[in-house]
Amino acid sequence: MSDVKTIAEPVQEKLVFDRPKSLTKRGFTYCPGCGHGVIHRLVAELIDEFGVQDRAIGMASVGCSVFSYWFFDCDFISCAHGRAPATATGVKRAHPDAFVFSYQGDGDLASIGMAEIMHAANRGEQITVIFVNNAIYGMTGGQMAPTTLENMVTTTSPLGRDPILAGGPIRMVEILANLDGVAFAARGSSSSPRNILKAKAYMKKAFRSQIEKKGFGIVEILSNCNTNWRKTPQEANKFIDEEMVKAFPLGVYKDVFADKSKK
Amino acid sequence: MSESQRELMKGNHAMCLGAIRSGARAYYGYPITPQNEATEYMSFHMPKAGGSFIQAESEIAAINMVFGAAAAGVRAMTSSSSPGISLKQEGISYIAMAELPCVIANVVRCGPGLGNIAPHQGDYFQATRGGGHGDYRTITLAPASVQEMAQLTYKAFDLADEYRNPSLILSDGVIGQMMEPVDLATIPAKDAPKKDWAVGLGQDKRERNVHTTIYLEPEDMAQMHLKLIDKYDRIRREVQYYEEFRTEDADILIVSYGNSSRVARTAIRHLREEGKVKAGMLRTISLWPYPYRILNEIASNYKAILVLEMNWGQMVEDVRLAIGDKTPIHFAGKHGGLLFTPAEIEEFVCAIDKDPNNPKTAWTPIR
Amino acid sequence: MPRIEVIKESCKGCQLCVPACPHGLVLFTKTEINQMGYYPVEYVDPEDKCTGCMLCAIICPDVAIRVYK
Hints:
The complex is a heterotrimer. By secondary structure, chain A is of the alpha/beta class. In chain A, 37% of the residues lie in helices and 19% in strands. Chain A starts with a helix and ends in an 8-residue tail after the last strand. In chain A, helix 2 (35-50) packs across helix 8 (193-211) and helix 4 crosses helix 5 (114-122). By secondary structure, chain B is an alpha/beta fold. Chain B contains twelve helices and 16 strands. In chain B, helix 1 (11-21) runs parallel beside helix 6. Chain B is globular, with a radius of gyration of 21 Å. Chain C is of the alpha+beta class. Chain C is globular. Chains in contact: A-B, A-C. Chain A binds chain C through residues 13-20, 23, 27-28, 30-38, 41, 192-193, 196-197, 232-234, 237, and chain C through 9-10, 12-16, 19-20, 36, 38, 52, 54-55, 57-63, 65-69. Strand 1 of chain A pairs antiparallel with strand 4 (65-68) of chain C.
């Protein structure tokens, strides 16, 4: 009898991919093809998956993601340029049970905010840092960043970044992975569906680092700034896969979960 | 009234005790003389009170930690001295724009630049005119004793919460370092108020809270400005603190604050004992809002006004704003981190009493 | 039957989804303009080839694709 009933019912269609609950209804204001949208979605999906939306507190940085609080549906602070890890520290110490994350770009984190990120990491602050590296200052119109590749042309390195005059691209997760307070440090990419899924797996561990009180977690995600790179979104993602990864190798640099002796 | 419980304390310690007793549960600071006793005191007593203490990597980090803690609804504080306060200005501007309450203490030393670690009052403009970028104000209280270091810091938290605005304590190396008795009964321990606008837990049971300082549309920014202007006007009306000392029958009115006012008090007593000049003093306790109202009301009762500041002449401009040309204003400054002596103040007062319009000492903005 | 739905008002026509589809079912046809002024992509699948692999949705920077299975 039950068989008959099953056959009679129309096949129920299931929605398997939709906007995560932790994103507001507001559409992203980023350029077409920009990696920020993908990375926002991943963060929101993980907030949903870990069930922490009711206690998630985000720190927006200064740069293109300055308005990220428009898109994440949780408490937010729009921080001063580079200071998000310090502000996050103040929040986390006040609410140790909150899920506190900062969302920072490369100019914000690796240039003006170098002191704040290093010391928050070194203190082992129980926060999660999402570090979007697109090798350029996007919001201000494409100036050279500390992460700009050698010989890469920007509006302030019109002849290409000269490493003798301006140094080379700075590798933050490698540096941060050396600090004892860091529980998880990895670099992913938003350049392809495969890389995006991998990046999400890294971010999941950076979330866990905080939720399980293991320490500071950071995931750097290589992202495109097709507008300022003067490329199409597709060309830009190809540039990540072919050029950017040479300076910024993908992978896990510190993983407290992999180290059995630390468990 | 509870019985007085007097304890001998350092100014910087008293300030911290006032903060903890007012319910402050977050302190973030960076070493700088002459306020180190504050950071040291907090490193032990703040965790003991169940709060959080961090010796921050920089003044900038410290003020941004305060930003976070204040946004999270905790009574939060940082302290520093002049060069460090300059570094904090970015954060103070953000906190003012985000309308978050906190207390910032400046144990002023002599500048500009690295200057020296001697007491000074050269940060008056920075404290009372906003200090950082953009148009904002911070409530500024100037203690003149160790007792007031405790009491005004205690009060500064209440004012900060009431108006959702940063409060500043403007003291100096002498007030911070010296020891005097504090009546602990004046700062009974209490809990900080709950804040429904704070970021935190339980977001499923309320609207989300966002603290931001960016309003790209000029129309939106203008709305925000109008809101701040309204608030500042309200503070101007409601917060004008001062103390009058022997003003009733005085011929010469000294206007001073903090450290300078202590020496002035001694000079006034001495001048009266000697029967030389009947001088009195208006000691301004709130520097922003400045007590313009009382000064304007009483100015014409005196032959002349003498403004005493350990700087090149900053508050004197506020005195002039308050009274205009009603009464001649004279200015005596003290430089390099040196303190006034009662004798030199007495000499000034006597000279002004003899010749209230003496152009040599008269202060005017018109040069 | 697995299928996708393009939320036309969210799509900015960046076309990252176009090569992401293993069956070439997402097309940049430039036939209509949305309110933002972009040409949204179109899902064309007359032979029901969509497997619901979600690659298009994963690469989409604007969460403009829903996937049904």
